[in-house]
Amino acid sequence: MSTDGVVSEEPRLTRKGRATRERIVTTAAGLMFDHGVAGTSIEDVQAAAGVSSSQIYHYFRDKRALVRAVIACQTDAVLGAQQPLLDRLDSVEALRKWRDLLVGLQRERHYEGGCPMGSLAGELAETDPAARAALAAGFGTWESAIRAGIQAMLDRGELPEHADPERLARALLAALQGGLLLTQVRRDTAGLEAALDTVIDHIASLAAAVSAGTSQHVG
What we know:
The protein is mainly α. It has helices at 15-35, 42-49, 53-59, 63-80, 92-108, 116-124, 129-155, 165-186, 190-218. Helix 1 crosses helix 2, helix 4 (63-80) runs parallel beside helix 7 (129-155) and helix 8 (165-186) packs antiparallel against helix 9 (190-218). It is elongated.
């Protein structure tokens, strides 16, 4: 068993067992996204997944352990939906394409639900320290991917030396999360677009200043 209370998938777990565990987790993730963690019981998951109570408790010690697995599932789903763009945010153009993807995803979802990770954080951060830590790690992975792209721009000399990739990445992620919340509440993407555009425009201005300085030096 792992330290977060989730039973690990050991080699002795059969293919059928892995499939059953995955079905339980994905079912729980969907229910918790729609109804919240508090509004989803083990019995709800059992019925929706078509499994017995003993099967659930074979893989998960309790509901908190299942929630940890849901956090991992949602983190993978959220980051996966942004691929391959998320791994290539190393230009202003790439950042704008990523922004367009995020806005487009919200429109496809009719502005409903917000961020699956953000929703879990809002419900669990103050009541479940282990869940908060797992979510913080997930957001850290997200931020690291953004930071890597900006760092690549800095390393190529496309941003000024004083540019701070960590701070810029954090600002982008914060803008995204706030924008997603406003999208969910207002049922439009205006806030999301404004928040992301403001940070990306700032990065673009830093890049433009470097480009202009280089041109003057060459001239």
